[in-house]
Design a protein that fits this description.
There is one protein chain. With 595 residues, the chain is α+β, with helices and mostly antiparallel strands. Helices cover 29% and strands 24% of the residues. The chain contains 18 helices and 24 strands. A hairpin with a 2-residue loop joins strand 22 and strand 23. Helix 4 runs antiparallel to helix 6 and helix 4 crosses helix 17. It is globular and about 95 Å long.
């Protein structure tokens, strides 16, 4: 017999009754029933109930067992009495009578319990992650992650892609976040960078004549953490193709992701990828207040400025006299009660707004039909409120909320309000994965304070219209750049790349990089584009966010095996740590204390 096990803790059933078996695992819990010890023995695969009574030669050893001790038992498989069968587990029809027991590893007093569903502070869970990972939900999440990655690889190979690895130590690149720098011992005063993405390398792979590339790639960005983003590193499905259009990329990656969500989505609806909408960036901002809209929510915002211009509601009327301002309405079907409207107004105040104007429609008390109610309705009068109602397609029992100003100032909070209204009113289809391609992203943005132009998104995107487009107002330039949103999260970002050196140099020049700087910072690409670069494009899909959605959690740390905390610290490994004096001397570095 094997030194540790003949079966896993999920293998045994009635067919094994009478057999002598060997199991190894952790003591999940111990129950003493009148001198008979019942032990749930757990391994990665499942749980088997084992028992021991005073007649067993292993009884004295079994009496000492505590939760999370790692043990090996030999015993005889027995059928459970009919009334004691546990249909919830695969081994629920049997139990194992212990005849021999060996303690493989004792456990000290536990800082968190593995058995049960107690909640523990995240700091405790991360400090003792090896215990936290033993819990059923975490085992399930990590297994799901592994299976998702395997499925993605299989699907990419089936589409004719091959996996190639790109360097981890490389040069700094402007990808929109801070680099993690690595000092060079051999070149004092110089630094490598951990790649924010394999962007330049995958483009060079295309220039090298490899038609289709993919990689499950680690990426490193020194970012501020949030619930759906790791502050240090993450993994993505990175892919690139030569001789393709934007639609070719969509047609390639959409079925891969749809297949993964169908396979692991627990029966939730996944729309046919051919029907996934393609929404221009500006339209997404106008309708949803975000470039990653949750389309499970049917609410679409609309511009209603005309109805408030010159109206009796002085706040909006005066606002509209300023250039670049507008009023948007957030329809709220079934939200037509003063109680709900006041609740949303209170939410807006918590978000830092003075409030949120609203109108709701109800049956008139005198029985004359429908009437509009609320402060705005009184100020702008029945004709304007009726015009708003008709534009928004609302009726009795519905409401609308209003925000105004320059869109860049209020769009994000309007988008959050849309989400809250949809959730509060039960409008969101929780049984669906709703995908949408967001297209036509602006390449440039102007700093609000200085007016300086910089890249808004990926600097390596091909501008629509090529070199000619770069001769006009930079803020009007849109790229062949796209994101894929799903249920309110950005899952994919990509572009058709700028593969022409003259366009690349001009694009960077507009953002303040002269040709010498471009050739210095991107010498590999600048050099390669002189030697017959093919048109190419691709994208990257966030593995962590995909698994987060499939695992139905809103915290990305629930699907990463060893994540950092909110302060970008690894509490388990005590990172970041202070370097030794010898290390600093070897690298020619000195740490300057903060004042």
């Amino acid at each position: 017999m094997h030194a540790y096990r003949s079966h896993t803790c999920a293998d045994l059933n009635k067919a094994h009754v009478g057999q002598t078996v060997r199991l190894s695992g952790w003591v999940h819990r111990v129950r003493d029933h009148g001198g008979v010890l019942f032990i749930d023995l757990r391994d990665h695969y499942g749980i088997t109930q084992v028992l021991c009574d005073p007649d067993s030669p292993a009884f004295k050893a079994a009496e000492k067992l505590r939760s999370e001790w790692c043990i090996r038992i030999d015993g005889t498989v027995k059928a459970r009495d009919a009334g004691l069968v546990n249909p919830k587990i695969p081994t629920g029809e049997i139990e194992v009578y212990i005849r021999d027991l060996e303690v493989l590893g004792e456990a000290a007093e536990l800082p968190l319990m593995v058995f049960g569903d107690q909640e523990y502070p995240e700091e405790t869970r991360l400090r003792y992650r090896y215990l936290d990972l033993r819990r059923e939900g975490m085992q399930r999440n990590m297994t799901l992650r592994s299976d998702v990655v395997a499925s993605i690889r299989k699907r990419m190979w089936a589409k004719g892609f091959r996996e190639y690895q790109t360097p981890i130590i490389t040069a700094s690149s402007p990808e929109g976040a801070r680099d993690f720098l690595v000092p060079s011992r051999l070149h004092p005063g110089k630094f490598y960078a951990l790649p924010q993405a394999p962007q330049q390398f995958k483009q060079l792979i295309m220039v090298s004549g490899f038609d289709k590339y993919f990689q499950i790639a680690p990426c490193f960005r020194d970012e501020d953490p949030r619930a759906d983003r790791s502050p240090t590193d993450f993994y993505q499905l990175d892919m690139e193709m030569s001789f393709v259009t934007q639609q070719d990329v969509f047609d390639t990656v959409s079925p891969v992701l749809a297949g993964v969500f169908e396979e692991f989505g627990g029966g939730k609806t996944v729309d046919d990828p051919a029907t996934w909408p393609q929404i221009p960036y500006k339209e997404a901002a106008r309708k949803y207040g975000t470039d990653k809209p949750d389309l499970r929510n049917p609410i679409e915002m609309q511009v209603v400025s005309d109805h408030f211009a010159g109206s009796g509601f002085a706040i909006f009327a005066k606002l509209l006299e300023q250039d670049g301002t507008e009023i948007r309405a957030i329809p709220a079907p079934t939200g037509g009660s003063r109680k709900f409207c006041d609740r949303m107004n209170a939410w807006a105040q918590k978000e830092g707004l003075p409030g949120m104007g609203y109108i709701f429609w109800r049956e008139a008390e005198d029985g004359s039909g429908m009437e509009a109610a609320g402060p705005l309705a009184k100020n702008i009068g029945p004709e304007r409120t009726e015009a708003i109602r008709q534009q928004l397609g609302l009726g009795v029992g519905d409401a609308a909320f209003f925000l105004g100003g320059k869109p860049a100032k209020f769009e994000k909070i309007a988008g959050r309000a849309r989400d809250v209204i949809g959730r509060e009113l039960g409008l969101i289809d929780e049984n669906r994965f709703a995908f949408a391609w967001i297209v036509d992203f602006p390449i440039y943005a102007a700093d609000e304070e200085t007016g300086e132009i910089d890249f808004e998104h990926n600097p390596f995107s091909m501008p629509q219209g090529g070199l000619e487009a770069l001769k006009g107002d930079p803020l009007d330039v849109v790229g062949y750049q796209y994101d894929l949103a799903c249920n309110g999260y950005e899952l994919v970002s990509g572009a058709i790349r700028n593969h022409k050196l003259d366009i690349m140099i001009k694009a960077f020049e507009i953002a303040g990089y002269d040709e010498a700087e471009v050739r210095k910072r991107f010498g590999g690409m600048a050099g390669a584009f002189q030697y017959g670069a093919p048109p190419h494009g691709g994208c990257a899909a966030g593995i962590d966010r995909i698994v987060m959605l499939l695992a139905e959690t809103v915290n990305i740390r629930e699907v990463i095996m060893f994540p950092m905390n909110q302060r970008a610290e690894d509490l388990m490994m005590a990172a970041p740590s202070e370097p030794s004096s010898e290390q600093l001397m070897e690298l020619g570095l000195r740490v300057v204390p903060k004042e």
